[in-house]
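RECORD TYPE: protein structure
NAME: Dihydrofolate reductase
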Amino acid sequence: MGKVVMYATVSVDGFIADPDDQPGPLFDWLTSGDVPLDDSGILMVSHESYEYTRAYWDEIGVTVVGRRVFDLTDGWEGMPPSGVAHVVVVTHRPKPPEWDPQAPFHFVDGIEAAIARAQELAGDRVVEVAAGEVGGQALAAGLIDEVRMDVVPVVFGEGRRFFGSAREQHLLEDPDVVIRGDRVLHLRYRVRR
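PREDICTED:
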């Protein structure tokens, strides 16, 4: 079974979006370099960011998101982001009635059930859990193995927190990856058990 990783790009003060769910300059690092990150021709990063991010993206088998992210992105129009094979959506509501049943999206009630379903689908590949409320719930439930964050030099002051509404203390190991890219610092921490 693959590891479960909580991930997002985050402001220096710990926010993944502003109060209006807008990313502001958080994703500027994805278009500020000269190395194509994917085939779109849009994502261009520094060499350092490419080496780190591309390798990670290639490990991901399934992404777990909350219904809020699913709705904000319009379900990525049925195409999982970054070439991921499946998306598991944590929700208490049924999938949209017009949703294409062939789209590789799975609607699951509850974080434990969502991670279990994602692990089934991912096999030995990484299960990526979006930071925010869903990520915070998974961390609180002891389901996260690793925390990855791309820290961007901006202060939001308020907004959507990286760890959602998690209020308990959780210890992480010292960072085992610290990579400086252009307008971003890539960090990886293992969760202390």
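COMMENT: The mean pLDDT is 95.
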